[in-house]
Specification:
Blueprint lengths: L1 H18 L4 E4 L5 H7 L1 H6 L1 E2 L7 E4 L10 E9 L9 H19 L13 E12 L3 H9 L5 H11 L7 E10 L5 E11 L12 H22 L6
Parallel strand pairs: 4-5
Antiparallel strand pairs: 1-7, 2-3, 3-7, 5-6, 6-7
């Protein structure tokens, strides 16, 4: 019996290391033609892998003078691409609205929202490229009572890079001058549900909402760094 509990403890430790017990975790961006369709072929060609604390794929226009902008226009375009059909339309709207509200809440800490284009107005467009719902009941069991599916869970984390029965979401972001339409920057990122106990019993799109919260916070931090001049393109 002791050996069984010892094995369980080891597996739990492995899972905690692999998942970080976070609400969500960043994983590799999934190849999708919708990325270039949304960002534009030329912009898409500039994307390179991001570093620690950055989006999975990113690009900042080296000629952009981001310090000139002091207002924002935020556009949550919603689901974009062929994978959108996998999510019911009413739930697409819920996630789109949530994304807009989360971005607005964080980004207005930097600059006010503009109601029209202008020479000092930055346009931020975000699109959800795909999203996969979590399976709440099975996920709760696998997190709260890990003995039941522990070995399979560990294998799943190693194979798929995410906790069993968790959700996932991939988004693209484009920054443009609101008057000229010049692309100033772009990013693509993907996050999946982690092994956090707090997230065990959340609703099926809870992982997506947690990821959106993380992106909203990251977007505000990065934008402030560039527009304040603290970080150069």
């Amino acid at each position: 019996m002791k050996s069984i509990f010892a094995l369980i403890g080891i597996c739990l430790l492995v899972l905690s290391v692999l998942t970080g017990c976070a609400a969500t975790k960043q994983v590799a961006v999934k190849e999708d033609p919708a990325i270039c369709a949304f960002l534009g072929t030329e912009t898409c060609g500039h994307l390179t892998a991001g570093g620690k604390g950055q989006a999975g794929l990113r690009w900042i226009n080296p000629d952009a003078r981001l310090t000139q902008y002091n207002k924002l226009i935020i556009e949550a375009i919603g689901f974009f691409g062929s994978d959108a059909a996998q999510v019911p339309r009413h739930q697409q709207q819920v996630l789109t609205d949530y994304f807009y509200d989360a971005l607005t809440s964080k980004l207005t800490e930097i600059y006010p929202i503009a109601d029209r284009p202008g020479p000092e107005v930055l346009r931020i467009q975000v699109a959800i490229l795909d999203a996969e719902a979590a399976t709440p009941g099975l996920r709760t069991v696998s997190i709260v009572i890990p003995q039941i599916k522990l070995i399979g869970a560990a294998a799943s984390v190693l194979r798929e890079g995410k906790f069993p029965f968790a959700g996932s979401i991939q988004v693209a972001v484009k920054l443009t001058d609101s008057v000229t339409g010049e692309v100033l920057g772009a990013a693509v990122d993907r996050r999946v549900g982690g092994g956090s106990i707090k997230a065990a019993a959340q609703w099926e799109w809870g992982d997506a909402e947690n990821a959106i919260d993380a992106w909203a916070k990251l977007s505000a931090e990065r934008l402030h760094a560039y527009t304040s001049g603290a970080k150069k393109p």
